[in-house]
Amino acid sequence: MLSTKELFLTLLRFPSITPDEAGSFAFIRGYLDDFEAIEVSIESTKNLFLFKKFGEGEHLCFAGHVDVVPPGEGWKSDPFEPLIEGENIYARGAQDMKSG
């Protein structure tokens, strides 16, 4: 299993510009292979739902996304190759859901 940081860096490397998930769903499905997965497309946008029952009682749901808007201009490095400077990580999606 990947460390939290390694998982984060891996997700940042997917150029998942809406509506293309760029293979990130296959990675997530493989990484969480013991979860039940359902993939649903609405128009050109794919959605991935993962489920796992841990016991009886109340349920907890996490919702997120891996798509990003185009990176635009102004990047000094590849926006889909994480740049680590000290304790900071720079990449497209680092502050918008790929970080959790």
TrEMBL record:
InterPro entries: Peptidase_M20, Peptidase_M20A
Keywords per UniProt: Hydrolase, Zinc
Coiled-coil stretches: none
Pfam families (UniProt xref): Peptidase_M20
GO molecular function list: hydrolase activity
Keyword Hydrolase: yes
PANTHER family attached to this UniProt entry: ACETYLORNITHINE DEACETYLASE, PEPTIDASE M20 DIMERISATION DOMAIN-CONTAINING PROTEIN
UniProt name for this protein: Succinyl-diaminopimelate desuccinylase
Source organism: Sulfurospirillum cavolei
